[in-house]
Amino acid sequence: MTATSLSDTNRPHSIVWFKRDLRVADHAALAEAAALGPVIPLFVIEPDYWQLPDVSARHWRFLRASLQDLNEALSARGQPLVIRTGSVVDILADLSQRIRIDSLWSHEETGNNWTFQRDRTVMAWCRAHGISWREIAQHGVIRRLPTRNGWARKWAHQMHAPLVPSPEGLTPAIGDLGGEPIPDTPYAGAFANAPAFTDEQPGGRAAGELFLKSFLEKRGRPYRAAMASPAKGRVACSRLSPYLSYGCLSVREVTHASQARAAQAQANSERMWAGSMKSFGSRLHWHCHFIQKLEDEPRLEFRNLHPAYDDLRPDEKTMGEGEKARLTAWQRGETGLPFVDACMRMLNTTGWMNFRMRAMLMAVASYHLWLDWRLPGEHLARQFTDYEPGIHWPQVQMQSGTTGINTIRIYNPVKQGHDQDPDGTFIRRWLPELAEVPDIFIHEPWKWPDARDVLEDRYPSPIVDYLGAARQARDRVWALRKSAPFARKAQLIQNRHGSRKSGIPFRGRGANEQDQAVVQGTRRRPKPGNTQLALDL
Asked: How much is the pTM?
């Protein structure tokens, strides 16, 4: 090594550790680090992470395309993305031997428990080696939040702040950093048997920008009316949630763009557009509201929020063969309930499902099939391209009735089919084995007189009596909610996690008309975001 290169490598460098913020626009950590001098933009592929039960090949495919986009953007600014595989601490230690590291920069992340523990290890390493780790909030989630009072105001302040300009150029790092090309898989043999589908959403910022543009210019006009339908919502929903989950787009820039479109709609008296943009804006708010729940209470990923439900359903260790069979049927879209199965098969194939049907799938697993929420939650996490732990796990618990503070909503899966797919077009698209079933029986094919002879082994009869199972589940869940100790604990949960914006207090009560479990799906529509797995925007 020459004297010049030794001097160069001894210059202080900043590492920008990319995680779920795969962009250069509105990226405060990159902008601030770049202002200090040479920057090492780093992404670490962690094989242990990719073996967790809540991640999948679908996530990897989206991530890989997003990394390719990010690398192009960084390379155009003078410093390509450095890809390394292994433990983050081991890689930081190796880099510190190659080059002088002055500081580590990243955005705050509310991930699953694995990433939380990983970050604690990284923090310990940084402290032991005298390296400053600067973590910057990238949306409306507030770390170490003492109370939810005033949270909505703080969220609005963060979202209305100006976008952070992208660095025009980056001072490149000096020396051999041991970078790698973006691999085909996160480790040898990963996802060897995973199916690859052609109609999944493509990863990367460029794709996200196209989805945002088409939503605000054309697709989003019927958003408010169409988002409850799995078929219509596939077009009318923004489809931006995976780009927000992986940070290809920031929540703030999407908020700015949607607010500008809302102002334009109001100025031009575009009533349908104005209503759709209002609904979309509320979901951007709820995006951070739910992530804040997991940020405040990480155990939500594993434990019932209200402990009264700890023994309500058999868990993974205690479930019998019956529960295992029902879980498998639900995962495959073979419950014998056509609308439920069509939704699951669409999700398994495309990685997307609209908010109402996400809620229905989880509710059917929890109430009608009486399954503990953890294993169904992991299946949905693997299938959702937009899996965001901070939204996913609080919402899974909400739909399973284990939070203790939310209305118990037991969807009638047949009525939902009639409401959202009245002519059965969606069902026929995803359940071709029902092609011969007459329209009048498409939602309940077991009532067709020729069902046994024509369907034979092609499509099952319902694996449960959906009305009887719903009544039994309602009685079991509400029986736990009637005691004074339940109400006291629920009030504490409400104080910690409840929305202040909604103004809905927990009223320590038993079952009443307003809050009874919804078996027939006839109650008035809840406020947006209050009861749905609403990440899909």
From this structure: 0.92
